[in-house]
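Quick one, probably user error.
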């Protein structure tokens, strides 16, 4: 494998190591140094060879670090290790280009003259929908899907009205990192004309052994999450057709809905 003096931006997927791509798995086993996000699962990190250097570079809520400074430090580390002839894996949760700042690292490496390859991963929003049997698109029902973060879902952006119209027309919204601002976001959606009865789901720790899901409505999701205390990270799916068909949770003690045909 061509792995000398090169950086690989690898999508680690949502957490389950069996959802890694074959390419990602091979690169992890060949890595000299791995710079990984905070949310990369321990099961995936366990795949690294004993001699690989591990560097945790992920953001954690409330750590107080300036994000521009953090990103520059990551860029510098990637370029430096590549210049030393190492196989460098930048391991990012989900997919590197889905709210992962991957393109910023690609540009920085290009400016530094460091060879770089991007390896796609399964993003948590798509994994959450499929594991919970929520079709983000479906023939004759909905033909588009919106992805956002909690920061952009507050929508002080000019395209907010367009987002609302798409959602009214049946386009589902997949929202990352929206837990802290959920009350405000939900209020903004309802005030803008979305029905409080619109289905809204929260999927916690997607694909992991303790995955859990709360199926509610836009008007009740905040209250239900206050009662359930789901562990982070949580992905939200909001939309006319965001109704789980069957499986709801990987936790055996959840009884909201069960699917007798599937053993979690």
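Nope, works fine. Designed sequence:
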């Amino acid at each position: 494998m061509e792995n000398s003096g090169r950086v690989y931006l690898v999508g680690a997927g949502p957490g389950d190591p069996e959802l890694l791509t074959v390419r990602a798995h091979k690169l992890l086993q060949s890595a000299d140094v791995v710079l990984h996000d905070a949310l990369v699962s321990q099961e995936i990190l366990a795949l690294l060879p004993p001699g690989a250097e591990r560097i945790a570079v992920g953001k954690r809520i409330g750590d107080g670090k300036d994000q521009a400074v953090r990103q520059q430090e990551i860029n510098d580390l990637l370029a430096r290790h590549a210049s030393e002839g190492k196989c460098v894996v930048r391991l990012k949760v989900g997919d590197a280009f889905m709210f992962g700042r991957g393109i910023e690292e690609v540009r920085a490496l290009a400016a530094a003259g460091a060879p770089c390859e991007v390896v796609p991963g399964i993003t948590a929003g798509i994994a959450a929908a499929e594991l919970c049997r929520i079709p983000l698109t479906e023939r004759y029902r909905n033909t588009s899907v919106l992805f956002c973060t909690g920061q952009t879902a507050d929508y002080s952006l000019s395209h907010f009205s367009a987002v609302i119209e798409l959602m009214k027309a049946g386009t589902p919204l997949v929202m990352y990192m929206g837990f802290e601002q959920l009350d405000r976001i939900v209020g903004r959606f309802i005030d803008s004309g979305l029905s409080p009865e619109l289905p809204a789901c929260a999927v916690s720790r997607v694909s992991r052994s303790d995955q859990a899901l709360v199926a509610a409505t836009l008007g009740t999701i905040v209250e239900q999450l206050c009662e359930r205390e789901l562990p982070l990270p949580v992905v939200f799916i909001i939309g006319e057709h965001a109704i789980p068909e069957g499986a709801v949770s990987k936790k055996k003690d959840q009884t909201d809905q069960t699917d007798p045909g599937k053993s979690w």
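The longest helix spans residues 67-83.
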